[in-house]
Fold each of these.
Amino acid sequence: MVSPIAGSDASERGSALDQLAARAGFEPEWSDAEGNTRHVREATLRVLLERLGLPAGNASEIEGSMATLDAEMYGRELPPLLTAEVDCEVSLPVTVARTGFNYRIELESGPVLDGRFGSPEREAVQLPPIAEAGYHVLVIDGCRTTLAVAPRRCYTVQDAWNASHCDGSKAAAPPVWGVAAQVYGLRRNGDGGIGDFSALTTLAVEIARRGGHALAISPMHAMFSAEPQKVSPYAPSSRLFLNVAHIDPAAVRGAGAASAAIDVVNAAEKTAALEALPLIDWAQAMSAKLAVLRALFESFSQETDPQLLHDFASFVARGGRALEDHACFESLHAARLAAWGEGHWRDWPVELRNPRSDAVAAYAEGNRRDVDFHLFMQWLASKGLTEAQRAAREAGMAIGLVADLAVGCDSAGSHAWSYRDQMLTGVSVGAPPDLFNQAGQSWGLTTFSPRAMRTQGFSAFIDMLRASFAYAGGIRIDHILGLRRLWLVPEGASAQDGAYLRYPLEDMLRLIALESWRHRAIVIGEDLGTVPPGFTGQLQNHGLLGIRVLWFERADGGAGFKAPSDWDHDVTATTTTHDLPTVSGWWQGEDIHWRARIGQTAAREDGSDPVAVAMEERAADRGHLWQAFQDAGVASGDSAAPSLKSPPVDEALAFVAATPAPLVIFPLEDLLGLTDQPNLPGSTDEHPNWRRRLDATVVDLFLDDSFSNRLRVIDCARSGSKPDPSRTESR
């Protein structure tokens, strides 16, 4: 493919173009990993502006696009949504609120506040502070808008602790802990080869019984039923709905109905074979599961239980237009892919690219049974995830499930199709060149247009937040730096030929805080990487927890590791993440060998073996880490560092448990001492990303003394109690 920006001359800058780009939110300059100032190519800006709906091919187009932005930003009409914080004055531009205008605030709870604007002392007039959080209605001179007034901060771990203790005490919450799990990798007898919501429910209950208060899970976003080879949970079809791969067919209609469905499609032998595999065969497992679920759906047509029938009908009614769109997309996508090989909706006939078209309505009517099947699967998935959270809370967790919100979605998916007017088109989210990836990254994902956010009242963003909070006691926002700015690359261009686009951070943080309280759920922001100055403080001010990972918590100078007491307080602490090596893998250098194995290791200018050099550097790091363990008292002060074959997993867990973080999350991979990480960034089929399964079933995990003892020691370390030595095994 020819790059859409090929042949541009980066040496000639157009000041009018730069001004338009800056007004639209693009940053014409950026700093690379070495601190050098880099200029975005002029042709890149023109392409990106055009794809934001702001043509900039010549002076006339630039002038017209500037006028469009002026009208949007400084017009005389109220925007469809304004954000504010409780007990703070609300500034309004004088173009929409003038001296002498009457205003009315219709509070969500019912009361009405009337007033009149006085003389402004600056270019804005002020609404008086509003003490009640909520989505209120503001009326000025007959014009109405939504006024979203947010709490000062998100719902916190302390709030969750207080709510879970019904004695009314407001005692400080102890430092709590939880576990992180890749749901697809969980095992349960009868799961068909993919981890499901029933296994998740069991895991949540067992962790709660051992003192854990949170279970962070891999993204549950809807994938592509017709393309099961698309397996990354961070590149979903939609962030509004759920992954049907995790449905347990027996969970809602019972084991008898599920067994009958398996018999109808003759899948018993196949599913048993899939369950025995060490890695998930997504294509085969999804084919079998969909066949079973379709047979289950056919038998559901004979259902006589009025409660179940009412529950399904109510679910569909609540889902409304968005749910119908997703189900229609799933059906239509499968049909177009099978008949024409059209995997991307932009390749469909024009009349099918718009979910509101007569052609799409005709398709849904003519294929009602198939569309209903996808509604049925979303209902089953919803009930399964709801049950997991209910069971977690009833078993004693203060927080329960922590859902993972991906930074974007596949541009070929249902979310982009259904919300095409609010999504970026023709661009990919990615990352600029850095020390680890000198070519930059283009992830093939899309997300919301910040311009459309403002002009359409943040409706798509709010819908996504509500979908994420719906089934959990918390959410983890992947790459939360993207709330401030995202690196966008024109489709077909090199990842280096991108630019940063700023987002309305303060508005989004307020909406996150508002929805956090409405759902009584904590918020964690994955703020790893190059964090802009002041960004961490903004997150903390709004009550979001950042993330701190053992491998990155280095002492001044970068050689040694920080003592646990020196870690940040307002964060979630963890040993590792799904994209990083496990404790065992890091200690043994398995990540280094994997990168060399798949061609991610660059040759060195001095001709030395890059793997040998990396392993030497890792050996030095192992020494520094072991020293940190000894200094912290989690390892014997007079013992030598363990060998490569005996990674200090217990010491690493104890070290992170000793940090002051209000919440510590331990990945199952580290609790089990596993070597392999779930995902190796920059790889696809070269590494078994998103395919690894645990060796034991969830039930059997808790019968293992080593695993159970680790949980016991962690619980004692976080609660301040002493473990029973007779029940604790040494490494």
Note: Residues 81-150 form a domain with the Immunoglobulin-like fold (CATH 2.60.40.10).
Amino acid sequence: MGGPDLHTHVALRLLLSYHGWLLETHGVMSSPTKTWLALVRIFSGRHPMLFSYQRSLPRQPVPAVQDTVRKYLESVRPVLCEEDFEWISALAREFLKLQASLLQWYLQLKYWWASNYVSDWWEEFVYLRSRNSLMVNSNYYMMAARAGNAVHALLLYRHRLNRQEIFPTLLMGMRPLCSAQYEKIFNTTRIPGVHRDHIHHLRDSRHVAVFHRGRFFRVGTHSQSGLLSPRALEQQFQRILDDPSPACPHEEHLAALTAAPRDMWAQVRKSLKTQAEEALEAVEGAAFFVSLDSEPAGDAAGDTPEPSGDSAASLDAYAHALLAGRGHDRWFDKSFSLIIFSNGKLGLSVEHAWADCPISGHMWEFTLATECFQLGYSADGHCKGHPDPSLPQPQRLHWDLPDKIHLSISLALRGAQALAENIDCHVFPFSHFGKSFIKRCHLSSDSFIQTALQLAHFRDRGRFCLTYESAMTRLFLEGRTETVRSCTREACSFVRAMEHQEKTDPQCLALFRLAVDKHQALLKAAMSGQGVDRHLFALYIVSQFLRLQSPFLDQVHSEQWQLATSQIPVQQMHLFDIHNYPDYVSSGGGFGPADEHGYGVSYIFTGEDTITFHISSKKSSTRTDSHRLGQHIRDALLDVAALFQEGQHLKRRA
């Protein structure tokens, strides 16, 4: 059915191994690339389905170890003093001489038998073996605003996913990305273990788990005639809201266990499984988790369709509520939780181990567009359609909680609340200019923002730091992410020029263009499997398996990312008219900082003229302040734009 058949997937795999198109100047296409595009079109078939290309995707290559070490040293040069750089260079030389060839040999061996030489280890060691709380450390959030339609839209997406009716993502409209991560969006839970967690995925689930005022419910999603209508789902949620029964002792705070350190939760879950197996299975076996918050999103209980009309403080509180909640009102183990606030706003909290942000983002775009524009609402504000009085009441879940669990719940709640209170979220839409202005400057929008972020961070902290930007490697089978190390020598030269009173605007602009070009080269290398970090990570894992000590790899592994960044892509522009309905675009989402004294920064281009930023940091750090960095980002963007003829009307640098 659609896509390449048995006779063509080998030819298509050879074609998809070509990456020359990535390296070409934007807007220019060479003859080989034109020929390649035509052949890909021929071999792809007319109507590819979501998983049509999986057998044809090439495997992620293992880069040459000398190249990786050289690129690594180049990336740390700007953030190290002379003495420290000499020291790490000596460690690198020793590594290349003593351990590199053996470790590389094992990776080459794995390349031949595994689907992807790094992704399974990445999932295992970065996510599943981490013993830290999932809250803030692993989960991320997405913003949006309505329970019946939203749940129905999510289930419609699942139906299309099961039938492979979601069109595979194609770069340039032709180069397919790996779809493997879509398989675990729904019916999936991360189960805690004493030493490592595992991901539990069911083929199907006919219910959602709902949390409201400390009580848990099981709500069926289907009747004999199929998927429940939005109005019928709304009726079920209203029944829960109207149910006056109180939460049982300790039940109210039970979900705080999912925010506890994983070893502790794993031990407690064993008791829970014996004492309250049915309730636990209903939650872990749900299609997804729904939290009906009894409070409005943020500070304001306004009724704007999206947060774009809200005050800054309200947006910050809204982000905080999605990322952390109150520590006991999200089931952090579920692949995602849909959070619906009392003022109709909604959002997602997503567990990170099973997939990366573009996957849940794709689902979220579909949900928002379907909820607003396909399903819609009647004049009285209800979901369209009719209630179904014959539906059974939602099933209240009962937890028989033994006394020994009570103390664990109290401890988990205290830890979760401390984590939640320590996170500082700041969200702001920057609307002086956006993607259209950057296009007119003939530059990559992502590289423009990343270089401006270097200027903002330097002004904030007075120094340069290792910067993590997430790039996808889904050009390859089961590819996940790679790191773009955005703090380059070129970016640092530009920042110093901007802070040097004697440098003219043309000089600064020339250095800015060099920094943007360098970032683009790094991004393309990362996407085509020639990045630094996943290769070094895999070499480190092999060294641990072989008990082979490498001071160089130990040092690389211990590095802290004080600036962790990510762009949230808008992937389905065709779903609705973005110009006439800008309020209905997701405002993106965010994540916690990767370091105690660091920042987490994500951004999304909403429409042509707005960029929404999400910044997080720890209140316990005396060195960071999310609002302060936000102001530096605003100033840096205006100062960079003012270097261009197009942006002369914007604020000049002091």
Note: The chain has three domains: 9-56, 134-164+185-423, 431-528+560-647.
Amino acid sequence: MSVTTMLAPSTRNSAASSTSSGFVPVSRQNTITSSEGAPRSVRASKRYSVTALYLSMSAQDRDLEIEDELARVQKTLRDLKSKISSQSKKNFVLEKDVRYLDSRIALLIQNRMALEEQNEVASHFDESSEIEGGTFPNDQKTQAYGNLFYLLQSEPRHIAALCRCVSMAEIDSLLQTVMFTIYGNQYESREEHLLLTMFQSVLSAQFETTPEYSSLLRANTPVSRMMTTYTRRGPGQSYLKVVLAKQINNLIEHKDLNLEINPLKVYEQMIKNVEEDTGALPANMPRSVSAEQAAENVQVQAIIEPRLTMLMEIANTFLATIIDNLDETPYGIRWICKQIRSLTRRKYPDAKDHIICTLIGGFFFLRFLNPAIVTPRSYMLIDSVPSEHPRRTLTLIAKMLQNLANKPSYAKEPYMARLAPFVANNKMRINKFLNDLCEVGDFYESLEMDNYVALSKKDLELNITLNEVYATHALLEKHSEELLSGRDTQHLRILLEELGAAPAQVPRKENRAIDLPLFSRWEGNIDDLSAALDITQEDVYFMEAKSIFVQLLRTLPATSAAARRPLNLRKIGDTATTMKDMGMFRKGMRGLELLNQLQEMGVITDQDNFQILREEIEQELVHLGSLKEKVMEETKKLEEVYKTIRDHNAYLVSQLETYKSYLHNVRSQSEGKQRNAGKQQKQQVLGPYKFTHQQLEKEGVIQKSNVPDNRRANIFFNITSPMPGTFVISLHYKGRNRGLLELDLKLDDLLEMQQNNHDELDLEYVQFNVPKVLALLNKRFARKKNW
């Protein structure tokens, strides 16, 4: 078995910290050269490769021993990445519930749901926000499931096959387990690369079973849902924040900028404006016209013309930002683009380059960028839903980018043809960008090394819930006939037969998160690296010596005589053996022993002060020095991503709480009507609760105020709930007995406004933010079980 390096000179020693700071982007790992630029021999390449492997195997353990600044910032980054992975999973689960409840609450608002259905919806709330930890009920089952999930993780073809079998109704449950549990460590190279291998298998099958390339990756299928879900993980969110957030926020600041170019809508607005200004319509302006008549209207054309120019300017700024940030694009997304190009060329050898680019663009824009542009609030790129005009502009920008990436079709929306110059001027530019996206290296050899590392670990485990285990088992069982009909499935067959029938899902409140130990029934731990990786014992000793002396130098005080340049390796080892710390003593002894062994083997000599080894150690230390700045920079970026994900989590939790309270109110009323038909129910009045103008402004409830600054301190609001689901908001001025105005609100109306993206609630003097009002009412009144 051959393992050759893919590390370029600038990163070839970076694996010393790759495990602790996140895997090195493989897109920058290309060639095998020496520090002087000359090609290395295969044996030398293997040595560098295995050195990288050895140094990365126990990076986290070493960080526990080494207390220098680099170790501390690496640990901070590692912890942050773990939090992002964990929080991404929680958000995915919450989003599933919100999607389900969105549709059910819509029926409640329209009074189309029976009490029995309301009870079924209520069952979705029978769980706490956090799943408690626990242990597996049965040790024998623990071992069996540990074998099964190790097989599923390390041989992605099984999951790929399962993904091709499941229905749309089943895919979300499977994706939760696959994307956020089995391969949930989004910044760890082995899991990421195994997940991408699974994608390659799924895409390959999709290409094989799709006769026409024009229909590839278009329909809403389990495969397309997988691809979209992949882009929603931490690295994808980070990219969107960096590339799109500023552009979108700049745009939505212009709330009154109307760039509508649909002639019929422009004509209707023009009619409305004329009526408001003059009170009547002139004879030559009929109220209703066809789309064609509106497009031919001279006044409409005059309104649209400057809008077209501005739209193309805005779209160009979006496009320039996307192209300029090519290197920010997550490696996994670029690698999927590369597979789409490669598979298209193999399956359709006659396909032209621009056709291939439309398929790449179909994934990159349709599944990744455009959803974030159209609904930036759901991607937490902005703080609130944009107002009507910016929202429409963002939709048009997304359509323009999609037309640019794909073959444009104006059959359904002929007015978009007026933007064809944007497509014509940028077609070559976008095709080059889409091809550049694909220019990344592969990871197969580094994955081979990562798998050896996994086999060498004694504590490989998966944090997974009981219901995820049982649901995955149930899907494997349901589709076993198709899954086990392929080649090399005997191991999966054995494990499924031993496990027997899949257990039923436990109630949500009984669900537990467990740490499931992973290990293979058919592969033992790797103890002899030299045999496993087809390298010599000299290589193993060399990489171990390099790792030990790097650790010693990172641990010794900078003022120590042993740390002075030029390095004296024997002096470093001797110094370590005189220290009271037993760890340092053992490393010092082992380092000296390795120097002697390597010298006896003729690999190094003390005549030149062990120059080859010393230079490698120096290079590693230089790299680690520059790595600290990179780690700190990455940490800063990911802190922003984590904050965004946490904010999104809070938004989803608030949404669920609102639904929960609303459902409680509806069910209470329904049950009350059944129990007290014909009787007047006595309702408890809650409130009034008082809020100052300053308080509501600070909390974002007031998003715009017409009250003069010098009077705001005297303004306050009272909110009362005279009956469940009904609220009265009154605006008061200090010193006056009566309120200035009063507004009656129904919870149904607020929820409907939120569903329709109507973000503003106008109180004449102030404009409230609808989601923030709902959150405020939920916080103040939900505890009373009143609405």
Note: Confidence is low (pLDDT under 50) at residues 1-64, 677-681, 783-787.
Amino acid sequence: MPTTPKPVAPPVPRITVAQALALPVLRRALPDVLAGRDHLDRPIRWVHAGEVAYIASMLTGGELLLTTGMGIGRRASDQRRFVAGLAEKGLAALAIELGPTFAELPDALVQAAEQHGLPLIALNREVAFISVTEAIHTEIVNAHYALLRRGDDVHQQLTQLLLDGHGIPEVLRTTCEMLGNPVFLEDGDGRLLFHAGSAGDGVDPLDAWKAAGSEGGRAPWRAGLSAPVPMGANQHAGRLLALPVSGPLDEIADVILQRAAAIVALSLLRARQEEELVARERGNFLADLAEGRIAGGDAERQAGSIGFSSQAPQVLPIAAESGAVAGSAAWSLVLRDAQADLESRGLAALVGQRDRAGRLLAVVALRESDQRATVASAAARAIRVAAERRLGASDILIAVGPGVRWRDAGPALKLAAETAASAAALPAAEWHDVRALELQRLLWRWRDDPELAGFVERRLGALVAHDAQRKHHLLPTLEALCANGWRKAETARALHLNRQALYNRLTRIEELLEVDLSDPEQTMTLHLALRAKPYVDGQR
């Protein structure tokens, strides 16, 4: 039998309008509620201050709006329109500081607020709006923090069930007791796998579940909560559903359900847990190493503790990127296969997953520096074969750094990871040499810098605009000239053009770009712009 759950404390509400008015900072402003007194229990999601007539367009709902009234308008029609716009956006309350704009709030404004059920508050003394904002936002943040702490307590209780040897049925029954309502586990096709909960108020949970799946209806018990539950590789996610058959479901109920869904998913996938944990452990080590969180002197010792066994003087840093859609569990099998392949060839290795599925890091033992190309090819082949066999993935970009000692492995891994990410703009290759792609890697790192985009636009924009309006494009000619070292004879042969035709094109390019293609300084600038263009265009 599962252990009896600890009682869950009542949900933590967001701060209400009434609670906000009770804060010292607002009490000192001598607030008067002139309209909407029956709606002071509304929660405040955020605080906004503004003085423009179109302020409603800047809101999303649930705000307390602070204003001196400058943007409301003097005419009754303007005041009614102002209130109607705020009510339509779901404003929590409107607080107006009396002073130069309004010595007292106009009747039209008060009546419109009462008509729309909008709490309208007059502040009789001057108050710093920033002080009000800080006080209320502090209350909101503290409430959410308390909610998260309670969620952590729930997660700990449910985790303990698994540690005690219980399974999904016990987790769902405990979740049901915490919620006071039935819960249902469905697979990706909506088929019921298991439910927990007895008849409440004479309603059978299974009847409620079946009725909840039918279209139409607005009964309060239909307003259930759900959380996705991953079902494993190549399967649609299922869901954990709670229905308010016996009582309402609130914020803490949502937190409980989310935590329970995570525990259920873990239990469903534990058949692959070992491979996934090993892959993540190695990936965490390699990622920490690349980000400088592990000292170089400690790296070799820590690597040995997680399975790297070699006395080789150097290691080869490797990184890989793939866009294949697959979960961590599926990728863990790719990593396991690649590591086994390398070890079968007598190569000590650590292959791990980085921050997300499809981003890999590895180090492979390198006994002799002249073996680098051979070892790099073997590692690239092992990763590609494993990904193709397990996932059908063939779009893997692999970057290999130079052989380094363990104390230098972290920076070398980081360079390899950045190079792999930047290689999407390059021609396909078995693997990319980090040492040959320093410029491309730097351009990739600057890809979001507006200065780089501006540079490319200034140097190549006229040519791009020309090609967009003409059938015969000139940019490929400039690219070919650059690729052939700015040598015209080789470029003509590569483009299958006679020299005069090439010269005509180059003259037109010089006119459009206002450059001299015989000037080494200008051709170097164009070379850099051509290399940067794929990254600025988003081919990364």
Note: Confidence is low (pLDDT under 50) at residues 1-13.
